[in-house]
Design goal:
Helix content is 37%, strand content 15%. With 266 residues, it is an alpha/beta fold. The structure holds S-adenosylmethionine (SAM).
């Protein structure tokens, strides 16, 4: 099979990478001039973009803790990103030291950094695969760290908006959901132009000149990605409003333009 057009073809510091731009937003050091320049353009397009990014990252923490509180002790995190503060295994293992995590990313640099961080661990793995080919993830030898006869916490946080409509996100998600046993949970965040369309359009325009252009989706489209999973309260909402740990105003939350939600397979 030929390599997909969007798949990361290797390491090119001259092409702004969505993973390295995200690392820059989060204050990381694994980024280059081209990434920083494009990230600065995105921050000009949306002056409160960092609030959105931090809100997304906070949601990830709450999602892992929520799933752990529901008894989930094994996680599949697709679209992991470059290692940063409070990675999924650190959050999960703070609740349950034996928790297992399989990370997946299609960016070779993310995978190399992830493997360096996780070297020697028998509770974590890092797989190089593309979510647009879910079979490659589900049949990967390293996924055997997870026991698919017991509930799994599946995370796709800030990744599905990088999958175009032609690549059929609902079909991808249906395949991933079908592989999970009853009691499993799915947590995702997804960009949407429902709230502040002009701002989101400007950011989308900037991302057209990166390694992976973005496709914001509506509330109904993102809800559809959960299939028949039952959404936990409060449903699919602007991510900061999902079981916040500090008071958040709805107006402030709407400006963050990422939906977040968690569903359970019954
Ligand atoms: N999930 C982390 C978070 O929310 O903090 C990181 C999100 S980062 C914005 C998106 C990540 O998804 C990047 O590391 C990128 O390489 C990865 N990604 C994008 N498209 C992907 C694909 N088709 N398959 C696998 N990973 C992908």
């Amino acid at each position: 099979m030929g390599e997909r057009p969007q798949a990361v073809r290797g390491f090119d510091p001259g092409v702004p990478s969505i993973a390295r731009m995200y690392d820059y937003y989060l204050g990381g050091k694994d980024n280059y001039e081209a990434d920083r320049r494009r990230a600065e353009e995105a921050m000009e397009a949306d002056p409160t973009l960092l609030t959105t990014i931090n809100g997304n990252r906070s949601f990830l923490g709450r999602a892992v803790r929520y799933m752990a509180s529901q008894g989930i002790d094994q996680f599949l995190d697709i679209g992991t990103g470059l290692p940063t503060q409070q990675n999924v295994h650190q959050i999960a293992q703070a609740v349950n030291p034996g928790a297992r995590v399989v990370y997946v990313d299609y960016d070779k640099q993310v995978v190399a950094h992830g493997r360096a961080l996780l070297a020697g661990s028998d509770t974590t793995r890092m797989i190089h695969a593309d979510v647009r080919e879910p079979r490659n993830i589900l049949e990967h030898p390293e996924i055997k760290l997870l026991d698919f006869d017991r509930p799994v916490g599946l995370l796709l946080v800030a990744v599905l908006h990088f999958i175009s409509d032609e690549d059929d996100p609902p079909g991808i998600m249906a395949e991933l959901r079908a592989a999970l046993p009853s009691g499993s949970h799915l947590a995702l965040t997804h960009a949407s132009a429902d709230g502040i369309p002009d701002v989101v359009a400007r950011v989308v325009e900037v991302y057209r000149r990166t390694s992976a252009p973005g496709t914001p989706r509506t509330h109904a489209q993102v809800t559809g990605l959960f299939g028949d999973f039952e959404l936990a309260e409060p449903g699919l909402v602007w991510a900061p409003l999902w079981r916040p740990e500090h008071p958040v105003s709805p107006e402030e939350a709407k400006r963050t333009w990422f939906y977040g939600g968690i569903g359970r397979k019954n």
